[in-house]
Amino acid sequence: MAASETSRYLARSLPRTLVPSSRHQALCWRRNASDQASSKAPSADLSDLESTSSLTTTASQDVIKSFQPIERSRARKTQLPRSRYQFRSPKYDRGPLHPHRPPPPSDPSSRLYVPGPFSLPRVEQTYQSTVASDILTLLYVHNPPGFKPPVKAPRLRSWDDSSPYHKNRPLRGPRGGDVLRLLRHPITFNNIPKLERITLHSYVKQAAWEHSGWLHVAGMAIQAISNVRVETFKSKTSVAQWHISPGRDTVAVKAELRGENMHHFFGKLVDLVMPRIKDWEGIKGSSGDSSGNITFGLESEDMALFPEIEVNYDMYPPKMIPGCHITLHTSATTDKDARMLLSALGVPFHGKLVN
Amino acid sequence: MSLSTPLRRTAATTARVQTSTTFICSQCRHATLLRRPKRPYQFTQLITMTDGSTFTHRTSSPVPIYRTTRDTRNTLLWNPSSNKLKNVEEDEAGRLAAFRAKFGRSWDANTPVEGEADAKASESAESKKAAAAAEAAAAQEEDDNLLDLISSFGQDDQHGSKKN
């Protein structure tokens, strides 16, 4: 009894799986020669399809006649509201799978679009007209025809197979330290070192144990001299003397300058501020991270020499103007090239030059 | 064709069963606010340097013209060869030098004054003019030295690069 029932159910359920569903057939557009051969008769599948083309209209002739967009727009007295003809980017980015995607930041309709540049800074003109070609000439290395550069040792050393444990080990780092320095390609017309970005950074320790006004003043001062809205950062390390604990206290302010802002800032830093710093000999020759980025610091008295702060010096509370660290990021891969570029642009260096 | 349909369906069901249940983030709203970038207002400012040259730049300072009192044109660090900026004392009568010769101690005893150095240089030039033949020989030698310098230029650099 039970066996016969199961068989009945089986018999009922089996053909259901084998019945072709119209949905899948409609979606399957691939056609094989074997398909053609097997299905000779136009079966009931095709009866599901609509007999009429989708291009034929079902609208009445009156509607078609009354549709006159050009006439309508001519008859309009006032302009359409802006929302009717201007695309507005969505306010939120809801991910790549959302149908309403914001346009890329380079699109003028994007919310992230930053227009510009609006001026050709003096520093950039100097760089393009004189400095770039000078550097290219100075860094030219002549190789006579037939010259073959000596083969260099590989940067990452392989293990000698003296031990069976050396198998499948990753390559060893360079001799004498773990740091793998940047490669210095020969300088040609398309990799002349140039100024990439400038970072202004100010660590205000009083913001942790006094009020946050220190941070606001620091942010305003740095924004004034750099024309860039600052970012704030929390401390990563704990400093017991200053009552700073990591992740709790917002203590630092940073502004990153690129392009036009960067060139204007660099110009006024070199031409107006640096000559007025008292008893200043230049940037220390040992400064730099050995990959082409050079950092120096300005005291709070030196920050007051910027024309933007000088013009309304009284706006800032006394003694709350911060000092800052300025990092000049160049596209050079060694400090030597970076120093050559910066000194060509007018930055003095003093002391022993360490590369 | 009819056979492929159930096969595909089974594949779909198995895929649905095998979806991972690990949570990558605890709370995903899948909407990030696109904040409009803040751009502080900028003015165009004309900067007049001490030697009279001017340039414009964009700045947040509203002053239209900025005159510098001290910049790269009148600072010794940028003009190391300028005698005007070197802070040299004017001692035409030689009284300061005489005082120093009489009472000068360690750091200011017999400091060579600029005028004396010039005089010495002119004297040496006159002595050279006196010996014309010697001068011609020296010039010839100098030319040779220059030619040597030109021909040997860059070879040291090459050796250096080879070492590197």
TrEMBL record, chain A:
<keyword id="KW-0689">Ribosomal protein</keyword>
<comment type="similarity">
    <text>Belongs to the universal ribosomal protein uL5 family.</text>
</comment>
<feature type="domain" description="Large ribosomal subunit protein uL5 C-terminal">
    <location>
        <begin position="251"/>
        <end position="349"/>
    </location>
</feature>
<protein>
    <recommendedName>
        <fullName>Large ribosomal subunit protein uL5m</fullName>
    </recommendedName>
</protein>
<dbReference type="InterPro" id="IPR031309">
    <property type="entry name" value="Ribosomal_uL5_C"/>
</dbReference>
<feature type="region of interest" description="Disordered">
    <location>
        <begin position="30"/>
        <end position="115"/>
    </location>
</feature>
<keyword id="KW-0687">Ribonucleoprotein</keyword>
<feature type="compositionally biased region" description="Low complexity">
    <location>
        <begin position="43"/>
        <end position="60"/>
    </location>
</feature>
<dbReference type="InterPro" id="IPR022803">
    <property type="entry name" value="Ribosomal_uL5_dom_sf"/>
</dbReference>
<feature type="region of interest" description="Disordered">
    <location>
        <begin position="152"/>
        <end position="172"/>
    </location>
</feature>
<dbReference type="GO" id="GO:0003735">
    <property type="term" value="F:structural constituent of ribosome"/>
</dbReference>
<dbReference type="GO" id="GO:1990904">
    <property type="term" value="C:ribonucleoprotein complex"/>
</dbReference>
<dbReference type="Pfam" id="PF00673">
    <property type="entry name" value="Ribosomal_L5_C"/>
</dbReference>
<dbReference type="InterPro" id="IPR002132">
    <property type="entry name" value="Ribosomal_uL5"/>
</dbReference>
<dbReference type="GO" id="GO:0005840">
    <property type="term" value="C:ribosome"/>
</dbReference>
<dbReference type="GO" id="GO:0006412">
    <property type="term" value="P:translation"/>
</dbReference>
TrEMBL record, chain B:
<dbReference type="Pfam" id="PF21492">
    <property type="entry name" value="bL31_N"/>
</dbReference>
<dbReference type="GO" id="GO:0005762">
    <property type="term" value="C:mitochondrial large ribosomal subunit"/>
</dbReference>
<protein>
    <recommendedName>
        <fullName>Ribosomal protein bL31m N-terminal domain-containing protein</fullName>
    </recommendedName>
</protein>
<dbReference type="GO" id="GO:0032543">
    <property type="term" value="P:mitochondrial translation"/>
</dbReference>
<feature type="domain" description="Ribosomal protein bL31m N-terminal">
    <location>
        <begin position="36"/>
        <end position="81"/>
    </location>
</feature>
<dbReference type="GO" id="GO:0003735">
    <property type="term" value="F:structural constituent of ribosome"/>
</dbReference>
<dbReference type="InterPro" id="IPR048874">
    <property type="entry name" value="Ribosomal_bL31m_N"/>
</dbReference>
<dbReference type="InterPro" id="IPR034600">
    <property type="entry name" value="Ribosomal_bL31m"/>
</dbReference>
